[in-house]
C-alpha cells in the first residue's frame, strides 16, 4: 500500500513546494475559517512584481474584512542604502463565503554591485486574524532572472545553481539560479513575469498553463522575454508557439532520452550569453549610469554658486557687525532677540526666492520609446519600452497614476552629477516608494520624482491599439496606408524580397507610394535611432530590423505612457516596429 502511495506523496510534495506559503492564519478551527497567502513564485525577482494569491474562507455567520500589507526592501553591499516599496490590499470577506484573489505586489528595483537582495514582508491584519512573514531573494551582479517549472527545477536546481555560482559572485554566498513555479497556477497578467528574463519549462507544463497564462507569456515574450521549452521530441508540434516573437525568443530543446536531467553547463552558458539577451538587471545597472543618450541630449545645467556665496557673505556681515553696531548697538543689546531672527528670516526668504527663480516649479524632461505593434493574430496591441529623463525644480506633490498596464523602474544615473539622487554606488539611495492598485490602476507616491533633482525611469507597457501599416493587395510597387492617429516622420518598409522602401511625412489615412533605398541608407537611418536608445533597447531594435514584410517608423507625435503630470516633456520620440498587414 505504501509503495503505491509513494509516487502520489512525492507528486503532492513537489506541487506544494512550487509556491511559497507566506501566511496561513486559522481564525476558527471548528469551521476552518482561515486566510492563506501564497507567493506563486518561490522567490521575488529583482524588480517588477511578485504574484501572490490570497485565499479567504470565511465560514462564520458574520461579515469580516482582510488587509494584506507589503513592505519590500532592497539591499546590497555594505555601502548601499537600499530602497523600500510599500503597498496594501483590502478585501471584504462576506459571511459563509470563500474567495481567491490574485494580486501583484510592486517591488523596488534592486540596484548595486556584487550582490543585492530583496525582502518582502507580508503582514495580515483585519477581523480574520493577524500574522506576518518575510520572503527573500538574492541576486548576483547582473544575474538574469530565471523562472523554472517544478519538474525541471526538482531535477536540476542544485546542479544549475552550482554551475551558475562558478560564473556569478555575490557577497552573500551561494547563487540561486532560478525561482520555481507550478504551471497549474501561472498568473494571467504579463506584469507578473516582468522581472524575469527567461522562463524554462517542459512541453507538458506549457500545455498545462491556462489560456490566460499563455497569453500573458506571449506578451512577455513580445517585450523581450525568452521562453525555453524542453520536449522529448525536440519539436514544437502541437504547442501553438509564435513564429515571430518580436523582441523576445522561443526555443524548443530536446531532453536526453526523454529524461528531465539537463546539461547544467550548457543551460547556464546559454542563459548568461551576452548581447541582446543581456539581463534586465545588467541593463538597469549599466545602461544609464555612464553615457545615456537621452540624458546627453537633454544637456547639463550649471549652478550659480557666486550669487549664493554673495548672499551668504552679505548675511554674515548684516547679522554680525551691522546687527551688533547699528541695529542693536550699545545700550540696545536686547534688540538682538528681535533683529537676529528677522535678519535670518529675510535671508532665508531671499534664498527661497532665488531657488524658485532659478529652478522654478515642476520640471522638464525628454522621453524615447521603442514600440512593437502587433495587429495580427487578433492581438491589436502595442508593446512598449519607454525611457525617460527629467530635471525637477520645486515639487509640491509627487503622486501620479499609471493609467496603462505598465511596469516602472527607477534607474541609476551618472554619479558625477550633483542633481543625481539614485546611483549604482548608493544602491537605491534610501529612497522610499509606495504603489497601490485602485480600480485597476497603479497609484504611486514617494521618491519617484524629487525636488531639485535629476532622475530617470524605464517603463514597459502593453496597451490596446488599432494602429497599423497596411499594404494594398496586388503586384507592383507597394502602396502603404497608415491607420495610426498621428503623423509618421519616416517610414521604412522591407519587403519579402529584402528590398528597402522609404516614405516621409506619412499622414493618418493617406495612402503613400514609398521609394526604394539601399541597404546602406536604411541601416544609416536605423543606426541613428539606435543611437538615441539605451543599450538594451538598441539591441532589441537590432533584433527586429531585418524582418521581411515589416516596417520601422519614427515619430514625435505618438502618445507616451504618462507618469508625473508636473513634468513638461519637451520631446517624446518613438520608434515603431511591426509587420505590414495585407487586409
TrEMBL record:
Indicate the transmembrane segments per the record.
303-324, 336-357
The protein's organism comes out as: Luteolibacter ambystomatis
Q: Which UniProt keywords apply?
A: Membrane, Signal, Transmembrane, Transmembrane helix
Q: Does the keyword Membrane apply?
A: yes
Which residues does UniProt assign to the signal peptide? 1-18
* Protein name (database record): Uncharacterized protein
Amino acid at each position: 500500500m505504501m509503495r503505491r502511495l509513494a509516487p502520489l506523496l512525492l507528486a503532492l510534495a513537489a506541487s506544494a513546494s512550487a509556491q511559497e506559503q507566506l501566511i496561513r492564519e486559522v481564525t476558527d478551527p471548528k469551521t476552518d475559517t482561515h486566510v492563506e497567502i501564497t507567493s506563486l513564485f518561490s522567490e521575488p525577482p529583482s524588480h517588477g512584481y511578485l504574484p501572490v494569491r490570497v485565499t479567504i474562507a470565511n465560514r462564520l455567520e458574520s461579515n469580516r474584512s482582510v488587509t494584506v500589507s507589503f513592505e519590500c526592501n532592497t539591499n546590497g553591499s555594505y555601502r548601499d542604502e537600499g530602497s523600500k516599496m510599500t503597498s496594501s490590499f483590502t478585501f471584504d470577506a462576506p459571511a459563509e463565503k470563500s474567495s481567491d484573489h490574485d494580486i501583484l505586489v510592486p517591488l523596488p528595483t534592486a540596484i548595486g554591485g556584487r550582490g543585492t537582495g530583496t525582502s518582502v514582508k507580508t503582514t495580515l491584519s483585519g477581523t480574520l486574524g493577524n500574522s506576518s512573514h518575510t520572503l527573500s531573494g538574492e541576486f548576483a551582479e547582473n544575474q538574469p532572472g530565471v523562472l523554472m517549472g517544478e519538474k525541471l527545477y526538482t531535477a536540476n536546481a542544485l546542479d544549475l545553481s552550482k554551475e551558475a555560482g562558478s560564473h556569478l559572485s555575490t557577497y552573500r554566498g551561494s547563487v540561486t539560479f532560478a525561482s520555481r513555479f507550478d504551471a497549474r497556477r501561472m498568473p494571467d497578467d504579463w506584469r507578473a513575469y516582468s522581472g524575469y528574463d527567461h522562463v524554462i519549462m517542459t512541453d507538458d507544463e506549457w500545455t498545462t498553463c491556462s489560456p490566460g497564462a499563455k497569453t500573458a507569456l506571449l506578451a512577455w515574450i513580445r517585450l523581450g522575454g525568452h521562453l525555453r521549452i524542453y520536449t522529448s521530441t525536440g519539436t514544437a508540434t502541437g504547442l501553438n508557439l509564435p513564429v515571430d516573437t518580436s523582441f523576445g525568443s522561443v526555443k524548443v530543446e530536446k531532453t536526453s532520452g526523454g529524461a528531465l536531467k539537463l546539461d547544467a553547463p550548457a543551460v547556464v552558458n546559454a542563459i548568461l550569453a551576452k548581447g541582446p539577451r543581456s539581463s534586465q538587471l545588467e541593463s538597469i545597472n549599466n545602461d544609464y549610469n555612464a553615457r545615456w543618450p537621452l540624458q546627453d541630449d537633454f544637456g547639463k545645467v550649471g549652478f550659480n554658486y557666486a550669487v549664493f556665496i554673495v548672499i551668504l557673505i552679505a548675511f554674515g556681515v548684516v547679522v554680525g557687525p551691522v546687527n551688533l553696531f547699528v541695529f542693536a548697538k550699545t545700550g540696545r543689546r536686547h534688540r538682538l532677540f528681535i533683529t537676529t531672527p528677522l535678519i535670518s528670516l529675510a535671508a532665508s526668504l531671499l534664498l527661497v526666492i532665488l531657488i524658485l527663480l532659478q529652478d522654478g516649479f515642476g520640471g522638464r524632461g525628454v522621453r524615447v520609446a521603442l514600440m512593437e505593434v502587433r495587429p495580427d493574430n487578433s492581438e491589436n496591441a502595442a508593446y512598449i519600452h519607454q525611457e525617460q529623463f527629467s530635471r525637477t525644480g520645486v515639487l509640491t506633490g509627487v503622486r501620479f497614476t499609471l493609467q496603462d498596464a505598465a511596469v516602472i523602474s527607477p534607474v541609476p544615473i551618472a554619479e558625477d552629477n550633483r542633481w543625481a539622487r539614485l546611483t549604482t554606488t548608493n544602491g537605491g539611495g534610501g529612497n522610499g516608494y509606495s504603489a497601490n492598485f485602485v480600480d485597476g490602476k497603479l497609484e504611486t507616491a514617494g521618491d519617484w520624482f524629487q525636488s531639485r533633482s535629476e532622475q530617470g525611469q524605464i517603463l514597459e507597457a502593453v496597451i490596446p491599439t488599432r494602429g497599423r501599416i497596411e499594404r494594398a493587395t496586388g503586384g507592383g510597387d507597394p502602396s502603404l496606408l497608415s491607420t495610426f492617429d498621428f503623423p509618421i516622420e519616416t517610414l521604412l518598409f522591407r519587403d519579402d524580397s529584402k528590398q528597402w522602401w522609404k516614405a516621409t511625412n506619412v499622414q493618418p489615412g493617406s495612402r503613400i507610394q514609398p521609394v526604394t533605398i539601399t541597404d546602406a541608407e536604411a541601416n544609416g537611418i536605423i543606426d541613428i535611432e539606435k543611437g538615441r536608445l539605451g543599450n538594451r533597447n538598441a539591441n532589441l531594435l537590432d533584433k527586429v530590423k531585418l524582418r521581411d514584410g515589416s516596417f520601422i517608423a519614427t515619430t514625435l507625435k505618438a502618445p507616451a505612457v504618462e507618469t508625473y503630470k508636473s513634468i513638461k516633456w519637451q520631446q517624446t520620440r518613438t520608434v515603431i516596429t511591426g509587420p505590414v498587414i495585407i487586409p
